[in-house]
Amino acid sequence: PDLTPGQFNLVYNMFSFTIATMFAAFVYFVLAQKNLAPKYRVSMMVSALVVLIAGYHYFRIFGSWDAAYALEGGQYVFQDDQPFNDAYRYVDWLLTVPLLVVELVLVLGLPKGESGSLMARLGFAAALMIILGYPGEVSGDASLMGERGLWGFISTIPFVYILYVLFTELSSTIQRQSGRVAKLLSNARLLLLATWGFYPIAYMIPMFSAGYPTETPGAVVALQVGYTICDVLAKAGYGVLIYAIAKAKSEEEG
Amino acid sequence: PDLTPGQFNLVYNMFSFTIATMFAAFVYFVLAQKNLAPKYRVSMMVSALVVLIAGYHYFRIFGSWDAAYALEGGQYVFQDDQPFNDAYRYVDWLLTVPLLVVELVLVLGLPKGESGSLMARLGFAAALMIILGYPGEVSGDASLMGERGLWGFISTIPFVYILYVLFTELSSTIQRQSGRVAKLLSNARLLLLATWGFYPIAYMIPMFSAGYPTETPGAVVALQVGYTICDVLAKAGYGVLIYAIAKAKSEEEG
Ligand SMILES: CC1=C(/C=C/C(C)=C/C=C/C(C)=C/C=O)C(C)(C)CCC1
Ligand SMILES: CC1=C(/C=C/C(C)=C/C=C/C(C)=C/C=O)C(C)(C)CCC1
Fold it and tell me: What is the ipTM of this complex?
């Protein structure tokens, strides 16, 4: 749809903000590693990779957004020959979402056998969730009972599995940690729930906007803004919390 | 040929995915070096160079693909004045394939005299394989009995030589390693076989698609997707396995 300058620029500037945030977070996570015990450094390295990959994709998303609209007569008019590429987000998530769960498991510092199986199961479920959500995202039929609703529903199954593992299996592991670390870990788990939980909500916006996407500028903008806020919190914000956990554990274990 | 948006975008997004993966792998291999004994660091450095070179080439390939097609009336129309440049791949391989065999030999940790000769022979054969495959790739005559088939056949001779060396000469060397390392090394050799083996298969796709490339959009897409998956596994995936080997050897040798 065509956008007002305010709508177009809101998204444009949020993308730029996110590029800056991701690359700055990358530098921070790389440099902060040396404050940690060697055992926990790999977790920060994974964090660094996540925000680097995200920075790259926001750079592409920004370019695609910029090319998809042109200012004509005071309105940002959608360019049919250069459509906005939704897939960058999903490609990004396909790489980063499994890494985010790996990061959480690594910072737990479990014995090798246990952590390998946890990472494999959670990483696989995370990738499956993203792959199953994609056909709904790009489908022309955005209704609740249509393709968007159907794929969204199927993609929720691995999502629920991930939450189930985090909130049942992992609970005893978290309780085994010291008071301060246990607190931080259960915060990280909550941050994961709080940020990840907004993705399906954002995904649902178009379902309630008849005529999406061609006739609903508001829903197009809300979806981009929603996903972007989630990404900043779920990647950079989450990485800072993982750093705090790794720091606390490094200090405790001397 | 002209492509549907689905075909064009599949290749487009896979190229973008690969750029992100290669550069993230580069950062990982550079930073992970310090976890290894100094003796094995050079092998990871070679891995890092391989994915850096590949990231650069995928950046170019992505740009070339994007410029070679334009969206007109719902179809991606091939632009005669900006053809897709196949040569980027071969230039990339010419640099990276010899480095990949060097990497494998380095992680074996052989005495100096032995490893030098192995690297020289395998690296030379690898370069020869790529050079001989190129005329067939760009030939207009893609048939099995035509130029593509002929050059493909000639290029298979150094390929078979490489496999012969890896699976005969190297076997005794691998058996001399400890149980865990021997297992990892023979996995690396199998991953090499599994990923390298798909390149000639992808190369053959056009041979069975009459009218390639102008009349066969499916074969054009399948070739790009096939080569891209191989490259991710043969460079980044393989590098991770080499890292695991180097880590295991570092720990064993204290
Ligand atoms: C459940 C569900 C979804 C969940 C997506 C999630 C949870 C994405 C998380 C992304 C993260 C954490 C990215 C940043 O790092 C989809 C695919 C929207 C489709 C609708 C159903
Ligand atoms: C045998 C053969 C080929 C083999 C190519 C190979 C084995 C390429 C490997 C490339 C790698 C490993 C790149 C990434 O790092 C060609 C040239 C397709 C031509 C047909 C015959």
Answer: 0.85
